[in-house]
Amino acid sequence: MNHDSDRPRHVPVLLRRADEILGPALESGGVLVDATLGLGGHAEHFLRTYPAIRLIGLDRDTEALRLAGERLAPFADRITLVHTRYDGLPDALRQAGLPERGSVRGVLMDLGVSSMQLDEAERGFAYSVDAPLDMRMDPTSELTAADVLNTYSHGDLARILKTYGEERFAGRIASEIVRRRAQRPFTTSAQLVELLYDAIPAATRRTGGHPAKRTFQALRIEVNRELESLEAAVPAALAALEVGGRIVVMSYQSLEDKVVKQIFAQASASRTPLDLPVELPGMGPEFAILTRGAEKASETEIEENPRAAPVRMRAAERIQAAG
Ligand SMILES: C[S@@+](CC[C@H](N)C(=O)[O-])C[C@H]1O[C@@H](n2cnc3c(N)ncnc32)[C@H](O)[C@@H]1O
Asked: What are the binding positions for S-adenosyl-L-methionine in this chain (predicted)?
């Protein structure tokens, strides 16, 4: 795939809002962790706007890291890029010579797939083009979407389609996968899309969006262990923040947003036992929530960048050192 420098650069999602929230924490410098570096759009903005910060950029996709490295070359002396899942954040901090707790001023997590991953048909994330059933965000990892389809039991297939895809017809689709793979193993997305057109009743198709949408989402979450990784990464990111440090997380589907919401709710709750009438000293909440519910992109932003349509942003600030 050719990555010309004249290739259009996608505008980072909710950039202005992310800047409004993280900016006050970064004005006097410190470390910003971009846990989902992608093509480095957000990272470039923050490095340019806050000349005293140092950036640690993480991504599990080696190609994204290479391209972001090229884009951020003008800031080479202020950046450390690390190939890791975002739950590897504590190790990445240690490698950069920082304690894993209380050493970071800002964390940004812009979850999901990058526009580059979606645009590169051969990586198999898009159901609209026929491609190998891959879907690995980290091309060096083992499990592919084809492996899941060809080796998982009926029960496991139905479970992931239902839980990660919120697919009503999970059981029926799982049965059809098991039946068809006995004749011919799955290798391409067109085989799967054809199956989904056959398995999902036409009446539902008219209201439920593209029949492949939910199954592709479920496979992607399974292949990349996305929720497990997030459930470990958000607490690690919160622990890494110093007092006054802020975190912004942007989710693109409800399961991710639910994980973030729950962890933030716990982190912003009082630690004083419920039966005590007054807050015990030092037992108040460690975090304050900075967003009201989950914030969405404006109509104008969605018009300019349809990929911003599903985004849900949540943010928090550490107001007390970890107990
Ligand atoms: C939406 S893109 C980020 C775009 C970026 N903010 C920009 O402005 O260019 C999400 C990135 O997160 C990476 N990613 C997704 N899950 C990850 C995980 N568990 N660990 C590390 N990186 C992950 C993907 O590989 C992708 O490059």
From this structure: 40-42, 59, 86, 110, 117
